[in-house]
Amino acid sequence: MNSIIRVNTRSGKVEKSQVSAEEMRWGGRLLISKFLLREVPPTCDPLGRFNKLIIAPGLLGDTPVTTAGKFSFGGKSPLTHGVKESDVGGEAGAKIARLGIKALVLEDTPETLKTRILMVSAKETRLTDAPELKHKMVSETFQILRERFGPSVGIICIGPAGEMMMASACIAVTDAHDALVRAAARGGLGAVMGSKGIKAVVIDDLEAKPSPPFDAKLLQEANKEFAQMLLSDPKIGNRQRFGTSAIMMVANELGLLPTRNFSAGQFEKVEEISGETIAEKIDERKGEGKYGMPCTRGCVVRCSNVFPDPSGKKAVGTLQYENIALLGPNCDIGSLDEIAALNNLCNQVGVDAIETGATIGVAMEAKVIPFGDAEGAKDLIRQIGQGTYLGRILGQGVVVTGKVLGIRRIPAVKGQAIPGYDPRALKGNGVTYVTSAMGADHTAGNAFETAKSVNPLGIENQVESSKKLQVRAAILDTMGLCLFVRTPFGSKPELFSLFLKGRYGWDLTYADVQKIGLDVLETEREFNRRAGVSEEFYGIPEFMREEPLPPKNSVYDIPLEEMQRIWSVKLPASW
Ligand code: SF4
């Protein structure tokens, strides 16, 4: 991967350049943070001419390392007004990497918004008009493009919410069999893509000539060992059968499951929506239902699923913990079938299901519809896709919706909805939500994984733990690896060194790799500082500092000064 392709969405001009020696060392989230700080005015309008949408595979994007097909989207977020990196699986990322493209940068905005496709192949990169795709739902867009371009292309697209530049809009991708809709969901980057007038990006790598790795044998052996370590993890069976919802019952037990707009941490109907129940229903209903699916080629963890309706037809692919938590308990909806339908509507309209679940929870508190009203919730999501006045308010996310409806209990940090872990019962996540440049993001340094070793209700060690988790996340996002492959690095962090030696011939210790993670965090923080969205201005919502969360009855009580200590915490050179 040694070229940068820049597409000016106003003039249509495409420029291809070779990467510098410094840029060669950047990938995924690191590349995005560096490009944004270097090229995007931090105070610019996220939907204006000066913001950029950057698409970047990770450093291992063109290798067979398990899950390395994950890739990153980045830009200034219309939701947080700070730096945003959002990564996703699917097929397109590995294809971009195979074409030797380190970054695809969409610049400027068209004078008048059009519906266009960006075609990228070994021969050319070009914009074409596609008015027939205007306001098409996500799966229909995939289907039309699949019929037009064939089975081997990778497809990225936005739904109507992105075209209408709604701040909760996501960017969707699909898997090798078009069974799943996966999303670079957080931060509203779908709106940035919409502001560039790009409905879809189609990647054709048939004539790609990927550059050979420095040492293919070393890379292959390291990957084999890595995959074996993942497969021998005792939790792998749970992940494959129950997906990310394997944690649902534990989250409920810990009292951190957002319920009725973050007014409780346990949900009465939790068993009906657990990972175990998902698997049982898939077994019972058969048909198109399936668990243990990879969202990106070569993933051995395979945490994705297709959840079937009672007749066995696909209701949604995939049903994950976060989306269930926010669209389910947070809206007092305890039926998997209803949650699956809501999740599918979010996918089709092209909005982040976390942001939307939180938004509907606030709308329910404001009595727009009652808690537990699944039909009403479906109508609200449809209205987002239709762009009604109410839909346009809801599509701007939980903060705008709360303000318009006069609700003060708004579960958001830095303008972005809090995901499926209430920080009053998992205080380490509160530290991450406040100090990470990403805002309230479950992938930025999730303390759920350390809930056994660090008391989730205590203050002690939360800052140290969050720092470690944030650095880990930044490293994985830079490599292009999924967060769910982190386990083996605990016992063998030098796997990173082997991967990078095998791919590039670089001699790096794990301490050097850790510096990459720290560099990401510092660069992102600097962008946010210049954008005026540093942590001192955006804390945990006030109601969470005052209102005890049942049943643990804890409030969020970590002072800002304690959280800011994170920047001086020194980490040992271990995973
Ligand atoms: S572990 Fe799950 S989310 Fe990660 S790449 Fe595999 S299927 Fe996708």
Question: What would a concise description of this structure say?
Answer:
With 575 residues, the protein is of the alpha+beta class. Helices cover 38% and strands 14% of the residues.
Strand content: 5-15%
Structural class: alpha+beta
The overall strand count is 17
Radius of gyration: 22 Å
CA-CA gap between termini: 27 Å
Please mark out the parts with pLDDT under 50 across 5 or more consecutive residues, or reply none: none
Mind explaining what this structure looks like?
- The protein is α+β, with helices and mostly antiparallel strands.
- The chain has 23 helices and 17 strands.
- Strands 2-1-6-3-4-5 form a six-stranded mixed sheet, sandwiched between helices. It has a six-stranded mixed sheet with strand order 8-7-12-9-10-11, with helices on both faces. A three-stranded antiparallel sheet has the order 13-14-15.
- Strand 1 and strand 2 form a beta hairpin.
- The radius of gyration is 22 Å and the shape is globular.
- The two termini are 27 Å apart.
- The model has no long low-confidence stretch (mean pLDDT 97).
- The site of iron/sulfur cluster has 12 residues, from loops.
